[in-house]
Structures are given as structure tokens and as C-alpha cells.
Amino acid sequence: MSTVTLSLHFLVVLSTISLFIHVSSSSIINPSKVKQISWKPRAFVYEGFLTELECDHLISLAKTELKRSAVADNLSGESKLSEVRTSSGMFISKGKDVIVSGIEDKISTWTFLPKENGEDMQMLRYEHGQKYDPHYDYFVDKVNIARGGHRMATVLMYLSDVTKGGETVFPVAEEPPRRRTPAKNDDFSECAKKGVAVKPRRGDALLFFSLHPDAVPDPNSLHAGCPVIEGEKWSATKWIHVDSFDKNVANSGNCTDQNESCERWANLGECTNNPEYMVGTAELPGYCRRSCKVC
Ligand SMILES: *[C@@H]1O[C@H](CO)[C@@H](O)[C@H](O)[C@H]1NC(C)=O
Ligand SMILES: *[C@@H]1O[C@H](CO)[C@@H](O)[C@H](O)[C@H]1NC(C)=O
Ligand SMILES: *[C@@H]1O[C@H](CO)[C@@H](O)[C@H](O)[C@H]1NC(C)=O
């Protein structure tokens, strides 16, 4: 082999290595870290999906925003309205910074679903006794599916270890018979024992589908957040729709907010929590269409 070919080979090897190093920090997915926990619904856990740095970063973004909105509410005298909301969570806008964008790339690589089909990431903090009652992530009303269509998949990332409780449980999941050895059950709370459950571990991520492959909603995807018994639980949720969530729907050329607080409410998740007021319908438009990006 001539010196020229040798050094060419060497170059190819070198650039392959550097490409690997460059990509590995954010968007390389390792399928051997994924385990399937149920087929009905289709649900999977990825161990160590987020790095320590990514977990810390998301929590610190959420803390800053929660503090900011608490102060803003105090100043505008709207504290009563938002006390409930600030404790339930806030949203981190898509591609907010390099780290958030890297996490979104990774989610896209893992789920095989395009980045633009995702909503902003929802951050939730649960303290002692707080829970999320059983619910579906898919919607049945027209308002909520106006943007991006149905939610088809959810990626729930755990940002903290929870000493006791705080599991995500699928109460009507069909459990594969080989799972659930009694020993494994021991550190689950009573709530978690009522179905197929995932214990929150810092950095792990749960992916489940709310629609069957034929796009029909899957009632087995009913899920709940068990009460936190000991410790504090932080999570980040990415909902992914069947269509782009960034695409603007029919625009009448009059895209305005009707209230000065719209942007802040949108950041607190009101577009999803309170769509009748915020988004409305074609016949009866809501008050914050601009901030909710529906026009
Ligand atoms: C809100 O305002 C009250 C007095 O107006 C003050 O005592 C309280 O500390 C403020 N809370 C925050 C979170 O700024
Ligand atoms: C835009 O909407 C506002 C509020 O509904 C209304 O007052 C205004 O007349 C509209 N403007 C146009 C050009 O349709
Ligand atoms: C905005 O909403 C707040 C709270 O509902 C309300 O008190 C205020 O009057 C609204 N402002 C306008 C301009 O409608």
C-alpha cells in the first residue's frame, strides 16, 4: 500500500472518530439501554437518557421561571389565580438553548418522530403528597387537536430520584406475565402496585404511545403520577403529535392577544390547560391566540 493510501485511510478513521465524539454527547441512542415495560400500551424505559448536566439544567430553568412568575403575579395582584398553576408547572420553549435543543434532538432520534411534532417541554415539580390523577394524554375535543392533531406519544423524563412514591403507573395496562417478581415490587408504593409502574430515577425516560399504530386512541394508555411519599419529584414531559405543532393554522390576518397577560399564561401552560379561554374555536376565538401560536 502506498503512503498516500495509508494516510487517506488514516484520515477517514480520524474523521469517523471525531464525528462520533461530536455526536455522542447529545443524539446517539443506545438501544440496549431501552427496556419494554408493556405492549398495551406500548411503553418503554430508557435508562440514563439524560446526563446529570441536562437534568440540572432543566431544573434550574424551571426554578428561575417559577420564581419570575410568582413575582410577576405578586406585582399584578393575580396571585390567587396563579398559585395553583405555578405549583403545577411551566413550559420550556422549544430550542430555548443548546442543551434543550440537544435533548429534543435526542428525543427525536429515540422516538423516530420529527422534532417539529413536539410541544414545548412541560416541567413539573411534585412535593410531598402531590400526585397526578389517572388521565389520558390524547384529547377528544376539537380545540385541542386543532394544532398538530392528536398527541400520539409522550416522553416523560425523570430529573430527580424520589425516595418513596412518585411512580408513573398504568392502571389498565396489560402486563406481560414474566414481569413483576415479588422482590422487585418491594420498593413500589401501594399506588404503583395497582398496575404496571415505573419508578422515577434521575436521568431515566419513559416513552409511551397514546395511539395505536392505526391512529386510534389506546385506552390502555391511561396513566397517573403516584403521590410522592418521601422526597421531591421533578419531571419534564414532551408530548408529540401526529403532525407539526409549529405549523400555523388558518390565519384570518388578525392575529392578536386580547389580554396583556397572554404570553405569561401561555408560558405557564394555559394554552393546553385552559384551551376554551386561551384558544377558543373558529366560531368563538379565544383570548390568547397569538401567544398560543394558533394564528
Ligand atoms: C408578595 O407581596 C407581599 C406583600 O405585598 C409580600 O409579603 C410577599 O413576600 C410577596 N411574595 C413574593 C413571592 O414576592
Ligand atoms: C381584529 O380582532 C379584534 C378583536 O376581536 C377586533 O376588534 C378587530 O376589529 C379585528 N380587526 C380586523 C382587521 O379584523
Ligand atoms: C386580563 O385578564 C385579567 C384577569 O382575568 C383581567 O382582570 C383583566 O381585566 C384583563 N385585561 C383585559 C384588557 O381584558
Describe this structure in words.
- By secondary structure, the protein is an alpha+beta fold.
- The chain folds into 2 domains: 28-247, q2cbj1_9rhob like domain (Jelly Rolls), CATH 2.60.120; 248-295, no CATH class.
- It contains 9 helices and 13 strands.
- Strand 1 (34-38) and strand 2 form a beta hairpin.
- The model is unreliable at 1-8, 10-25 and 79-87 (pLDDT under 50).
- The site of one 2-acetamido-2-deoxy-beta-D-glucopyranose (NAG) has 2 residues, from loops.
- Strand tally: 13
Estimate percent helicity: 25-40%
Gap from first CA to last CA: 63 Å
What pattern of helices and strands is seen along the backbone? HEEHHEHEEHEEEHEEEEEHHH
Number of helices: 9
- Give me the CATH superfamily of the largest domain: q2cbj1_9rhob like domain
Supply Rg.
Answer: 21 Å
What ions, cofactors and ligands are bound?
2-acetamido-2-deoxy-beta-D-glucopyranose
| Named CATH topology of the largest domain | Jelly Rolls
Strand content: 15-25%
Class per helix and strand makeup: alpha+beta
